[in-house]
Amino acid sequence: MRQAAIALSVGLLAGLPGLALAQAGHDAHHSGNPPAQIGQAPQTAVSPAAADLPDFTKANVAAMNDMHGPMMEGIMADDPDLAFVQGMIPHHQGAIDMARIVRQYGDDPQTQAWAAQIIEAQEREIAEMQAWLTARAGGEAAAAAPLGGAVYSANEGGNSISAVDLGTGAAATVSLPIAPHNVDLTPDGGLLLAVGDPAAQGDHGSQGHGHGAGVGADADADADAGEGLLVILDPQDLAAPAAAVAVGPHPAHVVADRLGRAYVSLAGGDAIAVVDLARAEVVARIATGGYPHGLRLSPDEAQLYVANVRDGSVSVIDTAGLAELARIPVGAGPVQVGFTPSGDQAYVSLRDENRVAVIDTRSRRVTGKVDVGPGPIQVLATADGRWVYVANQGSEAEPNDTVSVIDTATGRVVRTVTAGKGAHGVSASADGAHVFVTNTAEDSISVIEAASGTVIRTIPVGDRPNGIVHGRSH
Hints:
Number of domains: 2
Keywords: Signal
Domain YNCE-like beta-propeller: 328-468
CATH topology of the largest domain: Methylamine Dehydrogenase, Chain H
CATH architecture of the largest domain: 7 Propeller
Signal peptide: 1-22
Shape: globular
CATH superfamily of the largest domain: YVTN repeat-like/Quinoprotein amine dehydrogenase
Radius of gyration: 21 Å
Protein name: YVTN family beta-propeller protein
Oligomer: single chain
Largest sheet: 6 strands, antiparallel
Pfam family, one: DUF305
Helix content: 10-25%
Number of strands: 30
């Protein structure tokens, strides 16, 4: 299959860079003015970590970059106690990430022992601090965790991405050469990735991507849709040139690791495309089950779990050998996977059962299922591992507007939050204080305050937002 890097430039409204483009997205789309276009430009190189650095150094640099932004946001709280806790949570997470890196790459028994002790201690303290924040939220500290960072939504119906600075409210929508179904940031926050079919061929009807619901003629249409793209953007300046990589038929989701690789599920090709972001090219393909869709890396990035919609399974991929290790039967219509921070469990949305399957990652077996709302799509575990959020999209005829919150300790739904119609994508802030849900039928994002379980803000974005990711402000 052709492996091409196509140079692109993002032409936003003249003279207004990045998120300073206030309200350039949803308002422009619905007023009849199209969002800004991506046009052709000379080849532009992506700027990853230095190519000559060892993999463990790249991973450590990415972990530190991940930590610094949330720490700085956390310590800006007005209350010194809150500033301490909100700063220490990402600090501890940085220590956990470094410990996992040395466990993956190191071989000294002492460093391995220290790493194990650090992970156990820091995860326990993060949970204690999260519980303290939740308890404080009942009093004057209800506004303790400031709404910060930025969110990016993949607007499949509008061939665009919307970017919103949550602190300032500044928003921008940029057109893409694809109908993006999913979006993600690299671990260091340096690159914004989006995947989808070419805009002229993307399914822009009411069903959007479809999540493998079609059979027969619909399946043939998936195979004939043409070669989809991974589009690479600079989140610090959306007006800067971007690159795109031809990856294969009907790309659905994308995740990136700390080694500069992106993994793209190819629903039309029953495979994962592995992309070297520095070279902007596909370097490997890995066979999966039928119609691979949502995918997530384990916390130590040693394995990739992929939800195969049409054969009711999850593929377990070895990221070192780039091969499928196992295929776990999970149930009808698996769409997305979410790991707990410890990596001990993975939660899988079962769209056609209205349930979520729980996988024990050691035994690679389903240990239980949890009843949720109709048509569950994306799932996400919070940073403290206590909760799993499940967006229930419902059907096209009857879009649902609920988000189920599962208590991982009991395996039960303990709260149901009302978001917007067609609840689909889920992301969360690094401290777990806020959860963000895209509403495909209402062209909006719901911002949920985790402590109270209420929607505190609704943000208009582009047409039919699907995937969503939260990152630091730029």
